[in-house]
UniProtKB/TrEMBL annotation:
It comes from the Eukaryota. Residues 31-99 form the GCK domain. It holds the Pfam family GCK. This is GCK domain-containing protein. Residues 1-28 are annotated as: Disordered. InterPro entries: GCK_dom.
Length: 100
């Protein structure tokens, strides 16, 4: 069964994305994480930014329950499905997590 966007939180296994997609939650560090750049480059930039803003808002409030952003994950997931040629590695990773 393929996971729906609402079932699996979107994360990159190798990176901890901080506020504004930065690797560290540091206002002086303006460099965007490589995974965020990759996600934005594939045709779902707007949908990803909505999800990232949700996650950043939670983290800024001291929370880490990204599952609270499930409502914005649906449109992002649908967009990623429409752009499977680009997002295949992320979709595959999420499907593997769902099976675990």
């Amino acid at each position: 069964m393929e996971p729906s966007g609402e079932d699996v939180p979107l994360t990159h296994p190798a990176e901890d994305v901080g506020t504004n997609g930065d690797m560290e939650d540091d206002e002086e560090n303006e460099e965007e994480c490589g995974w965020c750049k990759w996600m934005k480059a594939g045709g779902c930039k707007d949908e990803f930014q909505v999800w990232l803003d949700c996650v950043d808002g939670l983290r800024a409030a001291g929370r880490d329950d990204v599952e609270s952003c499930a409502e914005v994950m649906g449109p992002l997931w649908a967009c990623m499905e429409r752009h499977k040629d680009y997002y295949a590695p992320q979709l595959s990773s999420l499907a593997d997590k769902k099976r675990e």
